[in-house]
Amino acid sequence: MTVLILPYGGTSPEFAAPIAHAGTGAAVLGRATLGRNAWLGALSVIRADGHFVAIGDDFRLGARSTVHIAHDVFPTKIGSNVTAGSNTVIHACEVGDDCHLGNNVVVLDGSKLAAGCALGDGAVVFPRAELEGGWYYEGVPASPVRRLEKGELEKLHAATRALKDEAIAETGLPTAPEGATFVAATARLAGRVATQGENGIWFGCDLDAGEYEIRIGANTNIQDNTVMRCERSSIVIGRDSTVGHNVEMRDCTIGDRSLIGIGAVVAPGTKIGNDVLLAAGARTQPGQVLDDGWLYTGSPARRRAPLDDAKRMMIAENWPTYCEYARRFAEVQQKMLKENRDPQPVASSG
What we know:
The chain is mainly beta. It folds into two domains: 3-161, UDP N-Acetylglucosamine Acyltransferase, domain 1 (3 Solenoid), CATH 2.160.10; 180-330, UDP N-Acetylglucosamine Acyltransferase, domain 1 (3 Solenoid). It has helices at residues 152-161, 309-338; strands at residues 3-6, 14-15, 21-22, 26-34, 39-40, 45-55, 60-61, 66-68, 76-78, 83-84, 89-91, 94-95, 100-101, 106-107, 112-113, 118-119, 124-125, 130-131, 135-138, 143-147, 180-183, 188-195, 199-201, 206-216, 221-222, 227-229, 235-237, 242-243, 248-250, 253-254, 259-260, 265-266, 271-272, 277-278, 289-290, 294-297, 302-306. Residues 342-350 have low confidence and may be disordered.
């Protein structure tokens, strides 16, 4: 399939014109509206379930990048002539016209990017931050490095848009493990993946157990475009946990009631305890142990503060929301498959 279109809550995406380019496995879901000349890279995801997504004209979303919302709190609004590189997440925020986001960028909830911002590769915009236009930002958190030179923003857009899309082989609809509520049609599962019930494995996810096993506890969900690899041992994740969008993890264990933030990297041999929050964009070191009940941030990840009641509550409220999303998407995806409907209802003009 080239582009997967699914409704959420009875509302389907709306397009001002045919998609200019849709890479293999691209998905547009729910209450999303897209302007003219949208370019969607392979395995890119625009998901508007718990709120709406509104995107202007001439939007380019790179391969394995994700646009999502915050349930009943923040929509995502993206202006015109916005470019996002590969493996970038735009989450529950506002992005003004002409902004350029590099590769592996994370823009978090409630933040506002004024028109004409440029974010360097790997930058993380913290929640509720406000970025002034006309600046080039880098780092975690994203901070202004210098004023953009005349014509520089246009060159950044042109360079990213000149890149070819990622080549992704089509593998067909994955077989859902016993007990999983939902496995998205664009996810890939290889080897032994075992679930314990009420699990969601979301769009663009790539789980490869190799010769080992990926075990996912009850109520735990794996968000869009997360990549898991077993190379020397299994991956084991406890119950009531959330693995955020575009996370990368290898040969690790994660306890119960933990949250792995958007764009985090979990190195081989990492042991994450119960009730842990690993912040967005954080990176662990090989063999690192993350103690129960702590917030970890940074690269390399370090203990920041004990997990307070508010953060524990946020984690506790997270997984039931995603379980409900999973049930709803499972219903509409199954209906599409039973009706043998073409999953490419919006034509590409290129």
